[in-house]
């Protein structure tokens, strides 16, 4: 699949692809951070048939659903034997309980820590643990 990148002066950039079934879809990344998902008219691939506007958080959720990917941001650890990371909970894991054996695990919801062992869409996990424990958590959350 070829991704076509087209600058949109004053707006941002459009990334568009044509699927093997000849369906065309694009994502317009605005300078403001807004994202528009564009479905093109099958009879005129230059004309938008439908557009869905997503904010940053919504775009992350849709990306999770499409790829099943888990994003892990590694942060500076307070000690060499520890790993500190932020894990965006994939959509497929939301609603399932988190493991109880990680004492330094915080659920972040809308930018604030919450006392909820069952993540919701958009939640992130802030984890301080050994590398094997972090790897085990990633495995649990992703199923991989």
Number of strands: 10
Secondary-structure class: alpha+beta
Principal-axes shape call:
elongated
Radius of gyration: 19 Å
Cα-to-Cα separation, first versus last residue: 26 Å
Strand order across the biggest sheet? 1-2-3-4-5
Entry summary:
This protein is α+β, with helices and mostly antiparallel strands. The protein contains two helices and ten strands.
Task: Output the keywords.
alpha+beta, five-stranded antiparallel sheet, elongated
Report on the structure:
The chain is 17% helix and 43% strand. By secondary structure, it is α+β, with helices and mostly antiparallel strands. A hairpin with a 2-residue loop joins strand 4 and strand 5. The radius of gyration is 19 Å and the shape is elongated. The two termini are 26 Å apart.
Strands, helices and their partners?
Layout: E1 4-8, E2 12-18, E3 24-30, E4 35-41, E5 44-54, H1 56-67, E6 71-75, E7 83-88, E8 105-109, E9 112-114, E10 124-129, H2 131-142
Antiparallel strand pairs: 1-2, 2-3, 3-4, 4-5, 6-7, 7-10, 8-9, 8-10
């Amino acid at each position: 699949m070829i991704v076509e990148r087209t600058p949109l002066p004053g707006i941002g950039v459009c990334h568009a692809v044509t699927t093997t079934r000849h369906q065309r879809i694009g994502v317009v990344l605005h300078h403001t951070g807004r994202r528009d998902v564009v479905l093109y008219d099958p009879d005129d691939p230059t004309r938008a048939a439908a557009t869905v506007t997503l904010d940053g958080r919504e775009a992350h959720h849709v990306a999770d659903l499409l790829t099943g990917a888990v994003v892990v941001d590694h942060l500076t650890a307070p000690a060499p034997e520890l790993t500190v990371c932020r894990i965006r909970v994939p959509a497929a894991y939301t609603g399932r309980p988190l493991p109880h054996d990680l004492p330094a695990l915080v659920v972040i919801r809308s930018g604030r820590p919450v006392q909820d062992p069952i993540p919701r869409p958009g939640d992130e996990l802030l984890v301080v643990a050994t590398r094997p424990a972090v790897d085990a958590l990633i495995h649990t959350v992703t199923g991989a």
